[in-house]
Every structure is written in C-alpha cells, then in structure tokens.
Amino acid sequence: MRVGGEILTPVEPYQGPDTREMVYIKLKKALLAGEIGSGQRLVERKLAEKLGVSRTPVREAIRMLEREGLVRHVPRSGSVAVALSPGEVLDIYSIRAVLEGLAARLAAERIDEPNIRQMEEKVRQMDWCIQGGQTDRLENLHLEFNDLIYRSAGSPRLYRMITSLVDYVAGFTRTGYTHPGRMEEAAAEHRQLARAIAMRDGLLAERIAREHIENSRRAFFARAFNGEKNR
Hints:
Layout: H1 19-33, H2 44-51, H3 55-68, E1 71-74, E2 78-81, H4 86-110, H5 113-132, H6 135-152, H7 156-163, H8 166-176, H9 182-198, H10 202-224
Antiparallel strand pairs: 1-2
C-alpha cells in the first residue's frame, strides 16, 4: 500500500542535468514505494514512453538498479523487480538508527537559532497536514525536517552516509504511515525530537531519534511483512 501521488511521471529537464540519474531516481522510488511491484517486468520501451525519455537512460538506470539488487535480469524474461527481504530491510533500519541517532546528538550540540526556529515550524506544519489529511505534503515535510537535522549535525561525511538511504526512507515511510495511528505517533516523536534538540540535550535527542526509527520499523513491518521480525 502506498501513500502519495504517482511517481513514474515524465522527467522534466529542469529537475537535473543528468537524465539517466533522474530516471534512476524515479525508478528506484517507484520500486521502493511499490508502484512497481515485486516480480513485475521493467520494459524499457514502456518506461521510456511513460517517462518521456529515450530508451538509453532507462537501460542504464536499470543496470544501476541491478547492481543495487533492486532489479535482476531473468533469461528470456528481461529485467524484473526484486523485493527487499525482511532481513535486508531490518539492516537498513538498524543502520539508520545509528546514523540518525548520531546526527540528532550532533545537531543538538551545533544547531543555530534560525535552524531551531525552522525545525519547530516544520513540526507545526506536519501537525497541520495530519489534521487536514494532506499526506503528500506531510511526506515532503518529513523529509525536509530530517534533512534539516542532518545538515545541522555539521558533518558532511555523515550527511552523505545518511542521505544515501533517503530513497529507502521515503518508501518505508509511505508504507509505515498506512499503519493505524502511525502518523499521529510519528508527529509526537518529531515534536519530542525537536524539543530535545532545541534544549541542546544531545543524549536525549539521540535516544528519541533511535526510538523513532524503531517505531517506524515496527509500523513498516506490520504493514509490509505482517509483523515479521517485529520482536
């Protein structure tokens, strides 16, 4: 189950200089969000038409996804979408918990006042979106809130490590948000995290961030894997 609008829309030139990269990003998001289901064939011609590009960037993007294990080549069938196993998803959540916990602690130590105000405003906007049922906007605000914390940590290397997982995070979040009560629970966690960072309590911020990831994992597994590994 997916929250939000269609991902596989035509690539627009202003979105980035590299068409292959934009096609890769769109296909990856569609795979992680379930818009392209496990076992579904990725037909170059159809994808090229849907995205409004030539077949070359689609072919190259599919090869990139094959290297990541999200797509596999099947003889006489072509490229087929591969679902992440519960163990692989668990690994991603475990890595996220460590990295995002560290980012929250560093952000509490290093964030400046303008970014504190911006972070608090993001929290208010997320609350308004939940009340108004604006799930598309909520997803974007969630990513913006996270990115603000990552940047406020003041570590370019840590930022690169965390953002390499952003596409997975977005896909998992969409699914997790469909679990009853998860949106409201996540909103409360964001408020607690913002408060801890504003108080410059690094240890508390780290603990809340890690608990938030764990609760997100539980919600995702409940929806995607019928609770498997939700121990």
